[in-house]
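Just scan my protein:

——
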Amino acid sequence: MVLLDFSSWWAGKASFEQVYWLIAIPSSLALLVTLVMTFLGGDFEDGGVDEDISGDDGAGFQFFTLKNLIGFFTFFAWSGLACIKGNISVPITIMISTFCGLVMMTLMAGIFYFMSKLTDDGTLKMTNAINRIGEIYLPVMANRGNIGKIQINIQDSVRTLQAMTDDDEDLPFGSVVTVTEVINGNILLVTKFKK
């Protein structure tokens, strides 16, 4: 009974409208699957490649992606069907639906571009410790006598890092210090904190 109703409904549509329905149904289903996969963390667009590339380029503005094309066809089809329902002429319907699809494609590309900028690689930049205040965790002997450790808040995270001092007196556990320099890229040079 339902199949008969669908057949009569389909037969009552003009071929121009049928084309839009043939685009709307699969693209809407694909958009739904894509959204569910994205929200559940099953993003299928990365190609399975893990990269370790340093640099500050980030992801560029990617216009032609699978997600964007699905968005284009979905909004192209539904806006075209709305125009057909509103008895708008065929050329204007094609122009409006193409415009709506491109707008959606641009919006999705923009959203994913700005979302990619929200990520942080988490790499510790030791130079961010300079002029920061920390606390001695393992005692540091005077005049670079040993390598001790300090606890310091860098990049919104408390870290325990190696430290030395050029001060003439030892820095015992709990002393408050200021970082003045980074030695060899991974040892902090500290001095006793002066108010």
Q: What stands out?
A: The first helix runs from residue 2 to 11. Residues 46-56 have pLDDT under 50 and may be disordered. Helices lie at 2-11, 15-40, 66-85, 90-116. The chain has two domains: 12-44+60-116, 126-192.
